[in-house]
# Entry
Amino acid sequence: MTERPPMDPNTSEATKKQLELAKEQGDAYGRALKHMTGTVANDGGQQEAGEYLIGYAVEEAEGMYEWLDAGNLHWHEPEEENCHVEVVVCDAADGRFVPVAKVFATLIDPDGNDLGTHEQPLMWHPMMYHYGRNWTVPSDGTYTLRIRVEPPTIHRHDEVNGKRFTEPVEVEFTNVKVKRGKG
# Structure
């Protein structure tokens, strides 16, 4: 593991109280993540990578709202898709969700076939933000999931604590249990 990002309470933008509140936000998000990966999803896990904590959840394909070209929300039920892959990207220092990153996932089936790499768009969920999309997978089984996170294009406050999320990271999860279906 690389060194965690600074959480210095003695800067022009951060006080001890502010950083404690940030950690409380991260703790709450972490509880939601643990619930999603351990209770809701068919499989899930997490690991640190650089300045990030990256987690995943795999479940049945889900319906979702999508924007149409006319600027209207349209509910879309899965058609050929039979699996939903969710990725969470958190700050390893305080556990808070990191928005506006570019997140890519690659699934490799039990026979070693690469099913492709897809960008996982940012998704709003009633419980927790995540990056995700529906996939079409050929069979139930044990897969490998590779995740690449490109640095977010967000501005950052604080000359000390704000210098983070500047490098891409990649993680690999093996023995990911995939069970096809539509939720």
